Amino acid sequence: MKSFERLILSHLKDITDPLLDPMQFAYRANRSIDDAVNMALNFILQHLDSPGSYARILFVDFSSAFNTIVPSLLHDKLSQLNVPDSTCRWITDFLTDRQQYVRLGKLVSDTRTTSTGSPQGCVLSPLLFSLYTNGCTAGHQSVKLLKFADDTTLIGLISDGDESAYRSEIARLVSWCSANNLELNALKTVEMTVDFRKAPAPLPPVILCDSPVTSVESFRFLGTIISQDLKREQNISSITRKAQQRMYFLRQLKKFNLPVKMLVNFYTAIIESTFTSSITVWFAAATARDKAKLQCAIHSAEKVIGCHLPSLQELHISRTRRRAPRIVADPSHPGHNLFRPHPSGKRLRSIRTRTSRHMNSFFPTAVSLLNSTPTPPS
């Protein structure tokens, strides 16, 4: 069954990808989690370059998101995305009258029939939810609604203290969710404010479903810790701890006299993967001290394995050079227009920044890096 689901998944992607909301980053060609985080930070940093501005970020949580899909509503949404009627009917039938039960050890519950939601662990579930929420978008230019499957983030770019558009979009989101059988979890939804103004006045809280939203100083957004000051210390400390914990297993394998090639493969898959996780998000803005901590972990691995390993700088450059051209090649990507070529076509226009925190973010860094390559993209 899962093999057939994969065929349907590939079929749906081919049909719907060009029609999906540009701010949906999950299960898209040439898109990644890094793109979603970098795009969110770019909106915020670009806006904060203007004096008297600040940003409010609402990290939305849904209650049992995949379990709330209504097949009939999904059928209509798929039809609007030009999915063939035969495929729509198959998906509707697939989600309707499903038999399920709960097993705990030798105990088995009674069988229940359900016609709402998509099965947990189903190959199609994440994409179906993305298609189901495709019409949920922001209507105001100063508010950005980013989605990665069921992870939804509303960013209000506030100028002159006018929050009317931000609060209007929140009300619009609540209304849309109510009309589409999605339940917002107000208790797990949190908000973070990024405000570098001098002596700002206290901000009125956001009310969601009659409950005030909790304000936080930092939040793990799609695997990357984002803090109010937009510094990277917390995220890098988390990465360093993971790498140091996994070094123990590398040392244990060394004691068993495994070949160098196998040790390198283990390092690449288990330890280096922690360094490269969202490295395009945090590396350029990291302090020299934080970079030295991570590089020290790499040197420790080199001593254990007995061979040279790619440095942190090399990892960042390779990931950026891999990621940026994909954005350049994708006109539907919301960051595509940030890579604007000069009339000669030989170089890209530098992104104007007024602060170092904006300059040390992904897009300005990527443009600079692509301009330094021997053969810049056309």
Automatic annotation (TrEMBL):
Record field: transmembrane: none
Pfam families per UniProt: ALKBH8_N, RVT_1
Domain Reverse transcriptase: 1-226
Molecular-function GO terms, alphabetical: 2-oxoglutarate-dependent dioxygenase activity; methyltransferase activity
Origin superkingdom: Eukaryota
InterPro entries given in the database record: AlkB_hom8_N (IPR015095), DNA/RNA_pol_sf (IPR043502), RT_dom (IPR000477)
Protein known as: Reverse transcriptase domain-containing protein
